[in-house]
Amino acid sequence: MNAIPHRIFLTEEEMPKAWYNLRADMPEQHEPLLDPATREPVTLEALSHIFCRELAAQELDTTHRYIPIPEPVLEYYKTYRPSPLVRAYGLERQLGTPARIYYKFEGGNTSGSHKLNSAVAQVYYAKQQGITHLTTETGAGQWGTALAMACAYFGLELTVYMVKSSARQKPQRRAVMETFGARVVESPSPTTQVGRALLARYSESGGSLGCAISEAVETAANTPNCRYVLGSVLDQVLLHQSIIGSECRIAMDRIGEYPDIVIGCAGGGSNLGGILCEYMADRLQGRGHARFIAAEPAACPSLTRGRYAYDYCDAGQIAPLAKMYTLGSGFQPASIHAGGLRYHGMSPVISKLYHDGFIDEARALGQTQVFEAARRFAVAEGILPAPESSHAICAAIQEAERCREEGVGRTILFNLTGTGYFDLAAFQQYNTGAMVDLSPTEAELIQNFRGLEACAQGPHSY
Ligand SMILES: *Cc1c(COP(=O)(O)O)cnc(C)c1O
């Protein structure tokens, strides 16, 4: 008999009752968001025009270590949480590695991802404030689905701008969102100024998250009693995703494990911020020994090839500017299958931790190696992973193989952010050998960095 069970579940009572705000323990904060018009740090007042009040306050909160999870949010969480921590015995055997591999499985809800953790929170606060309509963007569709679920539950209207290339790859996603009552618009669309301008320049554009964000922000600004909500990148989203790491910590402590390596895939940085928060807190206080790895796509390599600079969060340049690792807000990533990782920037918190050396490594991975990792994982563990999550799997397998070569049994923890049931066309492409690896040329990157120089004219003190 194995000493440690395959799945380590917490009870409802053991679930964290508060989100953990990692910023409260960071020795230095990231540079502030800047107002795109004045280039001054955004005020709570200004942010409250974009986000609802409570979320604007959370966005700027760097002092409260714990923020209580409201009771109705906790109630909803209990429909799909606590999520299991799984010991990947099958994968360990398949790899013949002395490593102990664990993953936190966040795909056990209809959105098929961790996005629901923040969607429920954001919709709840909007409802509290009397907001009746929300807009957002979605790349792969997980965030749109999560938000559609939360909006249906709390009774709000929702318009989703879905990145066109993803909408075409995954029409079923749209059907799920519409089942939950959301209105879905392909982006770039003719319904907004930003969309029309982009279509005029690139009529064949498959869209990008940055552009879809701009369309959603513009529509929110022009619709009464409406707010824009975002499923990643922002500090508030990392805060809500801390539930992943906090649950993980309780479960790992119970079995007497402490990770040597913590891995998350990185699109906008929210699940990585979630899975690492508790162990990063140790690191920031000079305790603990975990190494942190961000796994990103070679086609959209914000951390490994981007610049650490002020940039727009959106292609339409309406949302605040953030200091982050970025490829430039005009960057049009190739249509790879990990739609949720096709974002030009990176969470300011993750960017700061990486810049200051607290996140030890970012690793860019090609999609064929990622799908090979997905296949191996599916065979060994019986879960069909999302292409995004498979970046973390791929990095975990690489680390486990290193353990085998070095004869060292390290403890590896990674976040399995979601399932890949809507990505079957991508798996089919991989299975038939038709998948290609894509990455931007140096010249393409440099061209997009030019736009950053204009952004850099922020206040001189930053
Ligand atoms: C959105 C998404 C991601 C990437 O977003 P982060 O904010 O970087 O976590 C990863 N995996 C899945 C399944 C997603 O839906």
Describe the overall structure.
- The strands form four sheets. A seven-stranded mixed sheet has the order 1-4-5-15-10-11-14, with helices on both faces. Strands 8-7-6-9 form a four-stranded parallel sheet, with helices on both faces.
- It has helices at residues 44-50, 53-60, 71-77, 89-95, 116-128, 142-154, 164-169, 171-179, 193-201, 209-221, 235-254, 270-284, 302-305, 348-355, 367-381, 387-406, 424-431, 442-455, and strands spanning 7-8, 18-20, 66-68, 85-87, 100-105, 133-138, 157-163, 183-187, 226-228, 261-265, 291-297, 307-312, 321-326, 361-365, 411-416.
- The protein contains 18 helices and 15 strands.
- Helices cover 42% and strands 16% of the residues.
- With 462 residues, it is α/β, with parallel strands linked by helices.
- Bound molecules: pyridoxal-5'-phosphate (PLP).
- Pyridoxal-5'-phosphate (PLP) binds next to helix 6, helix 12 and helix 16.
Distance between the termini: 57 Å
Structural class: alpha/beta
**Mean pLDDT score:** 94
| Count of extended strands | 15
The count of helical stretches stands at 18
Cross-sheet strand order for the largest sheet? 1-4-5-15-10-11-14
Which small-molecule species are bound to the chains here?
Answer: pyridoxal-5'-phosphate
